[in-house]
Amino acid sequence: MVTLLDVAASAGVSRSTVSLVINKSPLVKDETRQRVERAIQELGYVPNPNARGLVKKENKSLGVIIAIEDQPYNTYEFNYETGLYSYNITNGIPVGLANTDYGLLTERFCVSIQGKELPALVKNNRVDGIFLVGGLFTPELIERLKEKKIPIIAIGRYYDQIDSVSTDVTQGVYLGVRYLLDQGYRKICYINCPQIYRSNAERVAGVQKAMREFHLEMKPDWLVYCKHNTGEGGYEAIKRLWQSGARPQAIAAANEPIALGIMRFLYEQDIRIPEDIAIVSYEDSVLGGYAVPALTSVNIQKEYMGELAARIMLKRIRKGQEGELEHIIVEPNLVVRSSVGKC
Amino acid sequence: MVTLLDVAASAGVSRSTVSLVINKSPLVKDETRQRVERAIQELGYVPNPNARGLVKKENKSLGVIIAIEDQPYNTYEFNYETGLYSYNITNGIPVGLANTDYGLLTERFCVSIQGKELPALVKNNRVDGIFLVGGLFTPELIERLKEKKIPIIAIGRYYDQIDSVSTDVTQGVYLGVRYLLDQGYRKICYINCPQIYRSNAERVAGVQKAMREFHLEMKPDWLVYCKHNTGEGGYEAIKRLWQSGARPQAIAAANEPIALGIMRFLYEQDIRIPEDIAIVSYEDSVLGGYAVPALTSVNIQKEYMGELAARIMLKRIRKGQEGELEHIIVEPNLVVRSSVGKC
DNA sequence: CTGAAAGCGCTTACAG
DNA sequence: CTGAAAGCGCTTACAG
């Protein structure tokens, strides 16, 4: 393995000089720098990350902590959550990290089971900062995380204790329902996430805001909650509604898994989308783009949230933990595909 | 920050002894060990990974190199690849790494653009070994990778130069087509991947094996290739076939994106699945489980391939690079859902 | 079974 | 602008 010393010898300078060159210090004479750079090239020298990390007290790695409900169970089935939400968010992070040499380490963390411990990545001091994805983190856990004194950025959900990048849920839901109304639909039902989610109130507010603009009231029975954030959850919810005799012209779903559950039920009843009934979804994912028919959905910009979070992280690392918390709200936007017609 | 020295002082031993305890050496007297362990507990000591890595010459990180066609472009649309293949494989790796303290770093690498360089993770010596996912790696690139002298395991595709975990494509495709035949379908068409894929021959072999068992011949016109591995690719392929007048009883698709493209075309024609036409897919993903109707598909066990690859990696790190290459073939299995009936 | 000492490959004041 | 020296926090022979 070629080290600093080899480069120094080859270039005829001291180790400090080589180090200064590597770290782009302006203190080195141009001619010396070039000589050193040539030696680095020739020898194929690469700085040892551990040696550097040891003295600079940094890992050049960031952690993504994904909150999960229980043990990760790999399945593609309709009655399981898809994991696409955290996957898409995580995909955006490297975009914001481009042109840095930060690596990204991922860990799934079950708050309910491992709640008393810390994620291994932070416990073992493997990372210089962490991203929290998912809404399952408790305030207590976040407090314990903060004791490690590394930057923490929440993605997808607002937490008042730390920096966050989240989405305007009310506005997003509003956009979807509003689009249905704009297209002439009036008899609209909303299939919401399971009751336990705190963001449900924001969703309902979005529905109501749109309805009121059209001087309509949401029928209380037409606001239903799924048991799970899965296809089956949506399927069962629409089935119950249908069996109660409800015949909406359009359905707004809280996310794609739920929307696809609804679509499956309708398919079984031989009800055509969008000819017989319209459906609009929220969140957006490959499930929406690939759905049959393609789902009109509100895109909450998951990748972009990840990217922005990465930028905040870099800033925190550079400037330190002091200063105002940042709470960025990303605007959702409607993606019109083929599941809504004209009423 | 608490260091080895603090623990040593607190426990009244030397640093070497603490180090031996941490590394579970049997050389330490039981009573001493307990004293040291108590001190570690009390002080909340965590070994510094960089210091340890520096002397042991290891990173305790592994890299996943995902081959991509061109720049990653984030979209959920029907005319883009989904990325689910590499995502699912990558998800399996941590399972095989459980109870070790290896972290997993991911890098997307565009062979055609960055072909002359090495992935940053390996160039900068950030990882102790790498997993190659995707079939786009060239033999030359692999040779250059091997010069780094770290273990390399290919997942999903066989390469003769390195360890690999892959799938029996012919058997998988056979399973799917065979199932159609078993259910009574005879007029079957096969929608294959784009021509450039080397695995296409294996797929065709699978189709033919099944057909011959039933004393049938594949009509050459009914074996068609998509332009892209996307929904649109499948959509356009089936459209061409349909417009040529072909009316198959059943369709076998080379993967879910293609299958969903086919399903979209059929939906537009108001052709019901499975009542009017059956469809079987291959690979399996959340796109299949959530499809409307749910897709019967051949599961190639992507997560399990990742898990096995991780185990091989651990073995290679322990035992070194010597010894026979391992080439594991994972058996595919049919997942019966709702897209195939009885003919 | 335990301790003193050298060394892993860097960076960073400090002189000059 | 450059070099000698100390130090980051560990592990590992080597004595004893």
Automatic annotation (TrEMBL), chains A, B:
Gene3D superfamilies registered for this protein in UniProt: 3.40.50.2300, lambda repressor-like DNA-binding domains
GO MF annotations, alphabetized: DNA-binding transcription factor activity; transcription cis-regulatory region binding
Domain HTH lacI-type: 2-56
Any single Pfam family the record assigns to this protein: Peripla_BP_3
TM annotation in the entry: none
PANTHER family from the UniProt entry: HTH-TYPE TRANSCRIPTIONAL REGULATOR GALS, LACI-RELATED TRANSCRIPTIONAL REPRESSOR
Protein name (record): LacI family transcriptional regulator
Species this chain originates from: [Clostridium] leptum DSM 753
